[in-house]
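Run Cupin type-2 domain-containing protein through structure prediction, thanks.
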Amino acid sequence: MEVRRIFETEAFVNGHGVEARKFYQSEHMMMVHLSLKPGDIITKHAAPLDVCFFVLEGKGIVEIGEESRDVEADTLIESPANCGHGWRNESDELLRILVIKMQKASK
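Sure, done. The structure for Cupin type-2 domain-containing protein is below.
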């Protein structure tokens, strides 16, 4: 059994200027923890993989494709491969998100 704790993983600043912690990666999946401080923005971008976002703490605005929605803790958001997605933290609290990137299953 392997056990990992998010905050025992090394933090880095990603290409969007947001604190990130990549704490799991395999051939088929990657999990990244993001911490968006008040005012932080992840500009809309697309990934070649299916992505799920799980809001762990706080509130934020997620944009998937042409749709934008306010979301809060305990919410799961799906973003299909090659669809633009982005985040904004317009609140005065920390927004923590678990990002799960998945390879499509081969047929």
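The beta strands are 12-13, 19-25, 29-36, 41-45, 50-57, 59-64, 67-72, 75-79, 85-88, 95-102.
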